[in-house]
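G., the chain you wanted modeled:
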Amino acid sequence: MGSVRIIGGSLKGRRLTCPDSGVRPTPNPIRETLFNWLQQRIVHARCLDVFSGTGALGLEALSRGADWVTLWDANPTLNQQYANIIHDWKLESIDHAIVQFPAPPPPVMTPYDIVFLDPPFDYYPLKSQLKWLSDHGLIKKTSCVYFEQRYQINPMDEILGWKSIRIKRQGDVEYGLLEKRGAS
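Predicted structure as tokens:
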């Protein structure tokens, strides 16, 4: 069993346990790039980390000033790990739930400003995830979505009313930020 650490903000240096299988944590260099991209958006944001895995993306957002973070994963063991972290680290602006994509999520009162999508690559295409977020009222016109997926040979400039604002590649992983077309 390995670990991943929070790399910035108020929780910097704290470690999260990585299960031996079934979880592919976002590497530190990619997380650092992501949060550099988000530095103007993250403070006071409401964030949703779908397919949370270790919880590193959501906890990093909380560490860097997000007002609220929700961690969602279908794995009950990971959800227990989130509950332990929330308790042990005395975190107040965070919750977690067992959500099996594409089943309906728990109801939310306010849509999220930033959504992190880092699913198992072979099961959940980005188009279906974006549609699911929209269909369930989890995003708003000004929301920003971070995604990771297996590298696509054809560039993805626009997808279902979303436009790419940043895209990078590391090895066989493509990652980036999307925002609604026409969002200001």
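Strands lie at 2-5, 15-18, 46-50, 68-73, 94-98, 112-117, 139-150, 158-159, 162-170, 173-180.

Shout if anything looks off.
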